[in-house]
Amino acid sequence: MDDGVVQRVFEEGGRDYFQQQPSTSSSSSSILQSLPLHVSFDHGYYLLIKSIQELREKKRGIVTVGVGGPSGSGKTSLAEKVASVIGCTLVSMENYRVGVDEGNDLDSIDFDALVRNLEDLEEGKDTLIPMFDFQQKRRIGSKLIKSASSSVVMVDGTYALHARLRSLLDIRVAVVGGVHFSLLSKVQYDIGDSCSLDSLIDSIFPLFRKHIEPDLHHAQIRINNSFVSSFREAIYKLKCRSEAPDACSFSGFQGNEAQTDNFIEMYLRPPSAREEARINDWIKVRQSGIQYYLSLGDQRIVDKNFIIRPKAEFEVGRMTLGGLLALGYSVVVSYKRASTSVTIGNLSLSLETIDTLGETFMVLRGTNRKTVGAEALRMGINGPWLTKSYLEMILERKGVPRLNTPPLLPNTPIASNQERVITAPKPIRTTPNLVTRLEDLSQPWTRSPTKSKMEPVLATWHFISSDPRADNTVTGSSSFRDTVKLAPMPDSYDLDRGLLLSVQAIQALLENKGLPIIVGIGGPSGSGKTSLAHKMANIVGCEVVSLESYFKSEQVKDFKYDDFSSLDLSLLSKNIGDIMHGRRTKVPIFDLETGARSGFKELEVSEDCGVIIFEGVYALHPEIRKSLDLWIAVVGGVHSHLISRVQRDKSRVGCFMSQNEIMMTVFPMFQQHIEPHLVHAHLKIRNDFDPVLSPESSLFVLKSNKQVAYQDILKILDPAKFCSSVQNFIDIYLRLPGIPANGQLTESDCIRVRICEGRFALLIREPIREGNFIIQPKVDFDISISTVAGLLNLGYQAVAYIEASAFIYQDGKILIEVDHLQDVPSPYLQIKGVNKEAVAAAGSTLKLDGSYTTKSYLQIVLERLPAIERSSSGIHTQQAARLQELIEFIQSQGSSSSSESSQSREASSPIEGIIEDMQSRIKRLERWHTINTVLWTFLMSALVGYSLYQRKRQ
């Protein structure tokens, strides 16, 4: 369990388990405690899964979960992600509508039917749940839910925590944030401080304070979802007029059912907008049947022929649109979009007709840029490609409506009364005396934007001129492009916003400076810089070069990957110089397993690839960044999570350490040699994303020790994409002595360090185990030898050692790993993939059903040992000598790096102390100067006023 959070009994409103199963100990009645504060989306997802798993073991019958929150908070996304892991029955409250007029109104929800369905499932009866069609605006039938297959039932909806349902729910989850908070911030920004936050809530979320917020305070897990929209999971689109391709363009998608949708899309201009068109400030609302989806501004990137959009859409209530109109927003453009689409896998092909334009467009969509481009070539579609939005096309043809003018009318008349009404629905006004007063409504997690001063519109990049003679670049060039530089952003940004700003900076540089553009991404190990670099490359379509390719073989033989002297700076300078002059250059390839350079690959800047990204710990070092066009710093990620984990472990044994103390020991090179360079970055990104907990980065794994023939493995992999490799790895488990563990060594109490291919990789939290599956992060976190040595210096002890060889076979979708562990007679086979169904199908094909295990290799090895050797004091085997030798080597290499860093810190500490003292004195003088200036001004004004008064009297 996570820090003992999921350990105690339910609080008010939950079920009484003491009556259902008498407890013989305090632990048997331990289910869940209400969290006093909110947690992040990723952490809440993890806690919810763990809570369901624990409750399922202790309770007879089904486990019921309610996930409630305002429209657009992310509750449906959470429910779907948990369901993909737990495999539960999802019940959407939107299917229980009995009316269509007021979206979120309580009167439109059939609570009696929902309660009846939950009671049937609780009693072990099959039940029929209703199905509602939002296009037809009516109930169209029902769906049978079998109680035998419903061990977990999750109710998702705005009113899922309502008093009518709370007594039937075992776990109550509240989700706030998302577009709900972002829309409040956007409106606050647009209309200024003329309305209080409560007034805005009552205007655009009129039922929130009366009917939704009071219920949220009964939740046991409270989630603040800061995620709004992300280009991490982007949609890539190619668009052209339908006359360009052949009329039978759907032929490649034959055999798949076409889906027809009709939308009305509206753009709302803020009340403070000027006459000029600033469509990035407009709010887009898409209406489908009685559902409304909202996006803030024109959230897209255009790169060459591709339109790139964030994947997420956010549903809001109809009254939100009415509230925005009442606050002064105006519908300046509206049009109908009829779409017929066919989907195969991650690709879809659509024919979209826009009534205002009177044209039909073909749109090819997918989640992978290269796949979308390849499919267009296969279909013989050559464009001409359109990168303008439908809004831009309409404005070009019709012009921008002036303020206080009616919206542009579509070419075709609107037929039904419903379609006429939706452009201006009336908002519900909730008077203050109707709002139920609760003592705990002052808690900020339910109603305040995550950042009260958050700008809803992204900052824009600006350029500054500089003297080219002041910059000694690698090439010594003083051309015009060297005199134009980006002005740094004053603030730091989260990973999602930072990704968008990074791409916009590249596009601004291409427009103002031309090819080539060289980008550097720096930050500590595990901060997320490599992930950011590759996501930028996917969007822009460029090359990524890791600075690890420039390691000198003689410098890294002792695993010192965070030492600047390990880089071949002369070769790096030559490569950057060649790129700047448009010459072909040979970039080194470094083999981490052998610790030597294995060859070179050729790199050339072209129109198709005019951007090169260099990423690495020292990418922003002065010797490197002076030759780069864009400097990006990334901090956070596993770098921060490791510090938090160490703090938690130390506190469990009664020792409290500051983050700075841990940082100086675990990351000795960071503060002295890396952090000073990051402050100069044009863009500073704080990576709060938790890849260890997040469902966005999960691998589904099936593990078995059943013997499988090599030929059978080949049969389930795509021969065209098949590749294989062999890896040798060593796992060592580090644990603080004194951590209570009931006398047994468990994986949850340990930090696992894997040595593989000459690298150290870290696992600081055990994966989720559900059924036959192990759900683990699909990314590894590399650390240096000095970090491992730092953990040992903090008191961690190596308590386990596992050595193994892995034979890996993969085709890009499925990875099959056959692990041979020393001292374990039979190998273990692991099937890994991001698609749960594909992994399960592969296991069934290999006839592994019934042979799966979710035990870790540590558990497997421990079970083979005598009972006396399984204690928390360590594992004593014939490999103990090898483990001791490895630990001594780590300490010897890590301590040398740490001592070098500490010496330089000690040498600089007096100077730093003097500087800090001078800075504090300057700040005090500045404050006194400000106060004196104000007082002097006031005194002089009084004297002048008095003299003028005396003159008038005379």
Can you describe what's shown?
The protein is α+β, with helices and mostly antiparallel strands. The chain is built from 24 helices and 37 strands. The termini are far apart.
Describe the protein's topology.
Layout (H helix, E strand, L loop, with lengths): L16 H4 L20 H18 L4 E6 L6 H12 L2 E4 L18 H12 L4 E7 L4 E8 L6 E5 L6 H4 L4 E7 H14 L5 H8 L3 H9 L4 E5 L8 E8 L17 E11 L13 E6 L2 E6 L4 E3 L2 E5 L3 E3 L1 H9 L3 E15 L2 E8 L4 E8 L2 H11 L10 H9 L18 H5 L41 E3 L18 E3 L5 E3 H19 L3 E6 L6 H12 L2 E4 L22 H12 L4 E7 L4 E8 L7 E5 L6 H4 L4 E7 L1 H15 L6 H8 L1 H11 L4 E5 L10 E7 L5 H6 L7 E13 L15 E6 L2 E5 L4 E3 L2 E5 L3 E3 L1 H9 L3 E14 L4 E7 L6 E6 L2 H10 L11 H7 L16 H74 L1
Parallel strand pairs: 1-5, 1-6, 2-5, 6-7, 20-27, 21-25, 21-26, 22-25, 26-27
Antiparallel strand pairs: 3-4, 8-13, 8-17, 9-10, 9-15, 10-11, 11-14, 12-13, 15-16, 16-17, 18-19, 23-24, 28-33, 28-37, 29-30, 29-35, 30-31, 31-34, 32-33, 35-36, 36-37
What would you say about this model in short?
The protein is α+β, with helices and mostly antiparallel strands.
Helix tally? Answer: 24
Mean pLDDT: 78
Unreliable segments (pLDDT under 50, ≥5 consecutive)? 3-36, 244-248, 412-442, 450-456, 470-478, 904-926
DSSP strand (E) fraction? 15-25%
Biggest β-sheet description: 10 strands, antiparallel
Rg over C-alpha atoms, rounded to the nearest angstrom: 31 Å
What gap, in angstroms, lies between the N and C termini?
86 Å
- Quaternary structure: single chain
Structural class per helix/strand content?
A: alpha+beta
Keywords:
alpha+beta, ten-stranded antiparallel sheet, 954 residues
